[in-house]
Amino acid sequence: MYSIVSCRILHISYDNVFEQQETAMQNICLITTSSGGSINKINFPLHQETRSVEAISKMATSMLDCISEIVDERIDVSDGDILQAISIVSAIRGNMINIDSKVIKDLLAELIENNYSAVTEAQNTRASD
Known about the structure:
The protein has helices at 53-73, 79-95, 101-120; strands at residues 4-18, 23-34, 38-45, 123-126. The protein has one domain (4-126). The relative contact order is 0.16. Helices cover 45% and strands 30% of the residues. The protein contains 3 helices and 4 strands; from the N terminus they run βββαααβ. The chain is α+β, with helices and mostly antiparallel strands and 129 residues long.
């Protein structure tokens, strides 16, 4: 199993996608480096109602750092364990929002789909020795 040894914000962009509506699509571009030598440049499109791009990037990098720290300390953590922990946190935070649970489930599904697509489309390279 690989852990993330480095995650840094490459850039935050605000692309005017819908010029007629004057709606800006926000993106965060992150570069991750794994302990296995894989480097990924990932451009994440953010939800249209995003309030704080900086807070999102800080939370994401902090969570990745925390996960890597735990993985580095323990040999009995699986990738499935990590995904379960993330889904538990997402469910708890979603339940804390005082709106219809179907709306939250749909939003979580949309966010996961969009972010997973961004990861699978990312530029992947190997670190040179």
